[in-house]
Amino acid sequence: MREKAMGVRAELPQSPSGGHVTLLKRLMVAVCAACVWTIDVSGQEVSLEYQMKAMYLAKIPSFVEWPARASSKKKTAFQLCTLGGYPFGSRLAREVGGITVSGRQIELRWVHKEEELNGCEMVFFSESEAKHYGKILEGLRGKSVLTVGETEEFLEAGGMVRIGFENDRLQMEVNLAAARNANLKMDARLLALAKRVVMERSAPGG
């Protein structure tokens, strides 16, 4: 696999909106956050890792452009789906509140099986689904669905974005080749936050 840092600015829109800049600043603030624990609305402690993962998942779609045929569908909400078990569901629900993607409110859907992914425009694969990455990602092949996971092998399986946590910092990796194959355009400002950007296809679905 050859990885490059050059050339990513080809994805940058010519006239970024102020809203996007604000979202980017919030992402960067999260990376530098000093607190380690907070209390969620459910009364449970939420670690810094889970806070940041929830925040990134809520903000990432604002830095991705879907093809016109997909974004023009008459839907009341942008479908952000989560597959598998993860411990920050209530936090993620809070983060997506009030956020819009191309003028559409984000709707969070908990999906329990592959057959329920129909209509999803972004899918977060929890670590519990690692054994099924290949099969599920293959089923999404050719569809303009943004895929996000949290394990090291996610990009190699054909996923588009991986969010991990190392040394009290969230690390993001992007498989730009997989995103382009799905006709998704990623903002260069999002790519600039990535620790690694895969520019060429080298894995199934990637």
In short:
The protein has 206 residues and is of the alpha/beta class.
Molecular structure report:
The protein has about 210 residues and is an alpha/beta fold. It has a single domain (about 10-200), classed as Rossmann fold, CATH 3.40.50. The protein has helices at about 20-30, 50-60, 70, 90-95, 135-140, 175-180, 190; strands at about 35-40, 45, 65, 75-85, 100, 105-110, 120-125, 145-150, 160-165, 170-175, 185, 195-200. The strands form 3 sheets. An 8-stranded mixed β-sheet has the order 5-6-4-7-8-9-10-12. A hairpin with a 2-residue loop joins strand 9 (about 160-165) and strand 10 (about 170-175). The longest helix has 14 residues, at about 20-30. It is globular, with a radius of gyration of 16 Å.
Q: What share of the residues does DSSP label as strand, in percent?
A: 15-25%
Alpha-carbon Rg, integer: 16 Å
Number of helices: 7
What would you call the quaternary organization? single chain
Full CATH superfamily name: Response regulator
Strand order of the largest sheet: 5-6-4-7-8-9-10-12
Helix content: 25-40%
CATH architecture: 3-Layer(aba) Sandwich
Care to count the β-strands?
12
**Uncertain spans:** 1-17, 29-45
Anisotropy-based shape? globular
State the CATH class: Alpha Beta
Q: How widely separated are the two ends?
A: 11 Å
